[in-house]
Design goal:
The chain has 207 residues and is mainly α. It has eight helices and no strands. α3 runs antiparallel to α5.
């Protein structure tokens, strides 16, 4: 009886993990959609490098989120951010329902990381349309790191059981607040700080 219960529990974890991985891959395809959107906002000569840039920055975002962001978002901590789970080991990532990622009680921490990092990457990709043809590659690197950390803290507020908005009953179904809100706020702020796109400015300086 006990052995059967353990087996059923393992099967449930396996099925949940497979489903979470599939949904994470589907969310990752949103990167392609934002790449097409950004390509439509740029001149023909710059459209070719956009996909490569998006993949490169998403890779950087993934590393930063593994090293620091996942701990800020879902590691044990206080009302503002997590303070544990930085640079997680293999053992902590494959554990289920164990600290520092005990919030993921039905899937391994690694599956939780994959599902959450694609949301972080999509939120970051929202900003790229505002930065199109306005910034050099190193600016994308710096902003990508900064935004990933900022997004992680915001997601902790709402999705972590320790977050101050979570404790007040706030919900963000399917990321409806956590995902678009930081990107939508950062986009106009970045556009105001950067210069106008030269392709949209006439020789007399007018748009």
């Amino acid at each position: 009886m006990i052995a059967a219960a353990i087996k059923n529990h393992d099967l449930l974890i396996a099925a949940s993990t497979i489903w979470v991985v599939i949904t994470a891959v589907l969310v990752m395809f949103m990167q392609a959609g934002f790449a097409f959107l950004e390509a439509g906002l740029t001149r023909m000569k710059n459209a070719g490098h956009i996909a490569g840039k998006n993949v490169l920055i998403f890779g950087l975002c993934s590393i930063v989120y593994w090293a620091v962001g996942f701990g800020l978002a879902f590691g044990d901590g206080g009302w503002f951010s997590g303070n544990a789970g930085f640079f997680p080991s293999v053992n902590s990532m494959i554990a289920v329902g164990a600290k520092p990622y005990d919030w993921f009680s039905e899937i391994p921490g690694a599956a939780g990381y994959l599902f959450e990092v694609v949301f972080a990457g999509v939120s970051l990709a929202i900003v790229w349309g505002a930065m199109a043809e306005r910034a050099k590659l190193w600016v994308y690197f710096v902003f990508g790191i900064y935004f990933t950390l900022t997004y992680s803290i915001v997601s902790h507020w709402i999705w972590s059981p320790h977050g101050w908005l979570f404790k007040r009953g706030m919900q963000a179904f399917a990321g409806s607040t956590v995902l678009p809100s930081p990107g939508a706020r950062a986009g106009p702020a970045v556009a105001l700080r950067l210069c106008p796109r030269l392709a949209t400015v006439r020789p007399d300086g007018r748009g």
